[in-house]
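Weekly puzzle thread! Below is a chain. First person to post its structure in token form gets bragging rights.
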Amino acid sequence: PVCLTAMADFFGRDIPVGELVLIGEEEMGKEIVRKIGNSKAIIMKNHGPFTIGKNVSEALKAAIFLEESAKTLIMAKILGEPQSIPESIVNKLHKNYIEKYGQ
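Winning reply:
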């Protein structure tokens, strides 16, 4: 779930999670394509994150946002249960980021 404004800004949605598939097999790519939708990132069960972008720089930016968000959420879980941001607010934050901040 989206629990951080940075996640709402950059990703604009939950990060999808793909099923466990064998590394190096065609199924890995198929599962990523099947689950990623319009997200910039996906976490594959028992494997880890994959990110995409229009170029390498955008994919790297997505990877950095994903890693930093994950670290922050882990720390938040240690202190309690992070609260999800309502979808309507996530949508507003993401729209603002895309239109005004994240060009």
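Puzzle host: Confirmed. Bonus trivia for everyone else. The radius of gyration is 14 Å.
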